[in-house]
Amino acid sequence: MSRAFDITLLLLLIACALAVIQTKDLLGAVVIFSTYSLIMCLIWQHRGAPDVAMTEAAVGAGVTSALFLVAISKTVRKEK
Amino acid sequence: MKRALTVALLVVVAIPLLYAVAQLPQHGSPMTPPYTHISPRYLEKGPEEAGAENIVTDVILNYRGFDTNGEVTVIFTSLAAVCAVLLGSRKGDERPAGEPSSSAVPVSDVVSFVVRLLSPLIAIFAVYVMLFGHISPGGGFQSGAILAALVIVTTVIVGRKQAEALVPVRIRRLLQVAAPLTFFVVGVSGLFLFGDYLAYPKTEGQMWLATAWLIVIGIGIGVGGAAVLASIFWTMGDDS
Amino acid sequence: MNAVEAILRALTVILCAIGAFYFFIGTVGMLRLPDFYSRTHAATKCDTVGAGSILLGLMLMQGFGAITLKLIALTALLLLSSPTAGHALARAAFRTGLKPWRSPEHTEGEDAT
Questions:
Q1: Is the pLDDT reported for residue C111 higher than 70?
Q2: CB distance C95–B114 less than 8 Å?
Q3: Is the pLDDT confidence value at C112 over 50?
Q4: Nearest to A43 by CA among A17, A4, A3, A10
Q5: Would you kindly state where each structural domain of chain A is located, as residue ranges?
Q6: Is the distance from CB of B217 to CB of B183 less than 8 angstroms?
Q7: Which of A2-11, C16-25, C95-104 has the lowest mean pLDDT?
Q8: Which percentage of chain C shows pLDDT scores above 90?
Q9: How far apart are CA B20 and CA B23, in angstroms?
Q10: pLDDT above 80 (res C27)
């Protein structure tokens, strides 16, 4: 059961990573990237590393997304 | 001729490298030194030897203190460089000061109220993570990230000018180097007290001092990380 | 004692099932609904009702104790933050000029945009 959960999360992670590369809309890519961070956070927590999970949730999903959003708002939204 | 020489040189270099790789212990094998001596030692003796119940904190701040010291210095130097680059690119088009937030959508009352309601709780959580990193999961980096997220959310609500006015630039510069600075201070005091850079007290009666130093380093890293991440956000979000 | 435990367990299962059902509905809504506003509405339902009832079920399973207190705090946070996020999204979309979707029959009579 635990193994199935792990495998599902890892597959979702790979799907998210591919989606980030494929998405042309940079805003959408940032949202998918924060989803990636949240899945990664779940994986860390499930592997018994709450410290890393906390960092991943705060930095990966929170601060980095905010910085990316500001960067997009200062440049352009669409990938050329 | 030249090509043959190149190939020969590559082969000569490759053979010792491949030999060295073949000599390495198998990746993930339970017979490698980390699994036979080091992990059990950390797990068993960590709390009494290094001064923190949370073994992750023991390892990154005490057993591997040098690594973390260098890492923190590198990370914070690069973050300061990012700040400098962003600041430099901003100099050209200086906007008139005191202009209110020019975003397309004014801040909603509901969002503002909920953020005001929740931000003290977030702050308490960040301080808890910072101060109790030696007992529960967490520590300096984590609390720094949480504090930075809090600062960013508050900036969105009250506007950049007001939020930035809370931390004057002169103090901000000091806060940004807080993490390497605390490491340096703790390391040098170890040099004077125990004869080695970053030496921690080892004897039974002095463990409280080791714990105190772990907490001090945690506070330094947390405050420094929050300051740097918030400054990057403030510097980037000039006209938003 | 045993009967009480059985009832609590049954309630937990029912509440978790309700939560899972709402998550399913929310996901279907995200995929099927026509415009941004209705999709935001579906997603917010997911978070509040779905996650809320799952947390309630977990509280019933745990009984009184530290974990239940944490779950209550979590539920309060969720019930505060998720509608706020939905509100912020919808408001930002409306203020930047995104028109809500109208069904084709309605728009025929008016200016068809």
A1: no
A2: no
A3: no
A4: A10
A5: 2-74
A6: yes
A7: C95-104
A8: 22
A9: 5
A10: yes
pLDDT in tens, B24-83: 877 777 777 777 777 788 887 777 777 777 788 778 877 888 888 888 889 888 888 888
SS3 A25: strand
Residues of chain C with C-beta less than 8 angstroms from the C-beta of B108: 87-88, 91
Residue of B105, B108, B118 with shortest CB distance to C96: B105
* Residue showing tokens 């601060």: A63
Distances (CA, A) of B144 to B123, B138, B139, C86: 11, 10, 9, 27
Q: What is the pLDDT of residue A80?
A: 64
Domain boundaries, chain B: 55-87+120-234
Per-window interface: A 36-75 vs B, CB < 8 A: 49-51, 54-55, 58-59, 62-63, 66-67, 70-71, 73-74
> Closest partner residue to B138 among A51, A63, A74, by Cβ?
A51
Q: Are B127 and B119 in contact (CB under 8 A)?
A: no
Instruction: Chain A: list its partners (3+ Cβ pairs within 8 Å).
Output: B
Contact state of A55 with B142 under an 8 Å Cβ cutoff: yes
On whether ipTM exceeds 0.95, the answer is no
Rounded Cα–Cα distance for residues B47 and B66 (Å): 19
* Partners of residue A67 in chain B, C-beta under 8 Å: 232-233, 236
- Nearest 5°: phi and psi at A78? -95, 140
Which among C44, C81, C91 is the top mutation candidate for probing chain B, defined by the most B β-carbons within 10 Å of its own β-carbon? Answer: C91
Burial of A9 (0-12, 13-18, 19+ CB in 10 A): middle
> CB–CB of C99/C113 below 8 Å?
yes
